[in-house]
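In the current project phase, we have settled on a layout for protein records. One protein thus recorded is set out beneath this paragraph:
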Amino acid sequence: MKNAGAFIVLALLGTAAAQGPSRITMDEAIQLAQTHSPALQAARTQVPQGQAQEITANLRPNPTLAWDTQFLPLFHMSQFTSDLVNDQAQFDMGLGYLFERGKKRQHRLAAARAQTAVTRAQVSDLERTIAFNVAQEFVAVLQAESNLALAQDNLQSYQQTVSISEQRYKAGDTSEGDYLRIKLQMLQFQTDVSTAMLARTQALIALRQLIGYSAVPADFDVVGDLAYQPLKLNLDDLKALALRTRPDLAAAQRAVDAATADYQLARANGKQDLATSFNFAHVAGTSTGAFFFNIPLPVFDRNQGEIARTHFAINQSQAQSTAAAETVLADVTNAYEAVRSNSAVVALFTSGYLDASSQSREITQYAYRKGASTLLDLLYAERSYRATELAYRDALASYMTAVEQLRAAVGTRNLP
């Protein structure tokens, strides 16, 4: 039965996935994750749970109803007459209600609402985290696809070199040893293609897991390029924006309000409640009524321990809020500097190193094919070009990831 259930779940996931888009952009991937991520869906249920607790906190005490009958001749039913019931039996009925003092219900509701506000901010922070994780993995997919395209181009280009070397070997222009070394070098390029294909597949699987398996089909792909887009940013503006928009900071600030509400509730719980009741009694043919009042005397228990604890909890939450604000500022600064640093690295590659490595390879290939260059020169030019191109793609991926980190640090994807 368990295997059958698992099969049904997998079948449903496959059916749902077939309905998703087959090619998605980064913004679409983030939007799909916000809708389909199981972790986020589970976290969002905490908000209505908190709202349900608000209902509970706002409930008034229920009235109490009590009644009793006494002196009935249950074991001598022959004596059971209307006169006995009226003159000897006793009947009591009472209605009671507990009056809460200190505005306990209002403070309970305020504390519950404050906690719901904290939960709502925490869910928003999870949305921020998931958006960054999706964007980061999306960049990893773009890098893997770019590396795969590079590996395939390198393999195709080297295959031409091998073909020319074979012709030169057959014509007697090169030795058999050089030809075999060139041919063996083909293994490296073929391995690069296989490794790049595996990296792309793994990156897509990781991205699909973040988005949600039911959101996209198994053969989905991404739309976008591993490209450099310069940003003009001001650090002070980013810090000010982060202090206004970061949901984890908002959660820490809401926690101060929640701690204050708990303190007020603790003070209210120190007030003793008044229990009242009205009792109707029928005894010996006479009907009477009585009022009863009951209130504990706050001699020992005045809830002073909880009042002290919640008072210190306010100080704790205030310190945590300050720490959260400092963390936000540090995150923005670190992310800003990472964007600047990675931008400078990308600029180094585009300033001429990429063209130099490409031209060096082309010149060396042409010279080798004409017999004017050695095998070692060719292999060195190929390795240099490959290493430069891979390093450039790493720099692009690092820059794009740094930009996404800055968006997460600021708390919004719309940077000023």
The domain at 19-60+120-270+303-410 is CATH 1.20.1600.10 (Outer membrane efflux proteins (OEP)). The beta strands are 23-24, 64-70, 90-99, 221-222, 274-283, 286-294. Confidence is low (pLDDT under 50) at residues 4-18.
